[in-house]
Amino acid sequence: MRRFMLALSTCLGLIAAPVTADAAEDGAEVVSCNGCEALLELAAATPARKDDRARDVYRHPVETLKFMGVAPDMKVGEYAPGGGWYSRMLAPYLAEEGHLTGLYFNPDVVPFDGSKLAESAAAFPGKVVEWTGVDPDSVSGMTLKDIPDAEKGSYDRIVLFRMLHNMMNWNIADSEIKAMRTLLKDDGLLGVVQHRAKADAPFSYTNGSKGYLRQADVVRLMELNGFELVASSEINANAKDPANWEGGVWTLPPQFALKEQDKAKYAAIGESDRMTLLFRKRD
């Protein structure tokens, strides 16, 4: 970890004004973290990720975080960090000049016993430190219940990876997105990666219960909750995925819900087709 931090400090000294806005061909304003790719590559190569890297071919973390304009000096919220796959990359990347916060569900709105969510949020920094060895002061955790005034309007970025389907299925998407909006600065951005259904897929397949959502529905949901689309990317697209599995997205790796049944077939397809979207908090 110390060797990584020394390399990170050197790279930070070579980067000036890393986040810029460029005009895309379609006229959309695209935010990119110019010069951050080397730092992201360093973070992706840390020993803490030795078991995570096998999935980089599907999840493209370097390209995804660069697209979302996540710079190393930012305050970043990771919604529903789960097992820490992205946390183990974000924590060392942000440790020198930025800050990572694990954002957990509001325990009052989830359709399950949320009594231990506050404990999970409190334990998040310790887990990250154990995984990565970063300074404990560079990591925090909180639920989206009773957001402290000091946290409101203080985040540069929030990232939401493959969780919107659960939020939709549990009927908590509106309240959780609004809470995240409260956390963001006036010019803050929220990045979304989500399993993507076909544009003409029926509601019964795109209500969250199968893991897939229609991209147009996601954009509309975010617009209704105070965001505007800045840019979209095909970084995490997978044309091999027909997105019509009877058992939902969990048919594919890494879950392999059908166990050994046709496992080679699903392994050859890989992980799901995914939309990658970037939204700005609007007035």
Automatic annotation (TrEMBL):
The keyword Protein biosynthesis does not apply. GO terms for molecular function: methyltransferase activity. InterPro entries: S-AdoMet-dep_MeTrfase_Alr7345, SAM-dependent_MTases_sf. Residues 1-23 form the signal peptide. Keywords: Methyltransferase, Signal, Transferase. One of its GO terms (biological process) is methylation. It comes from the Bacteria. This is Class I SAM-dependent methyltransferase. It comes from Novosphingobium decolorationis.
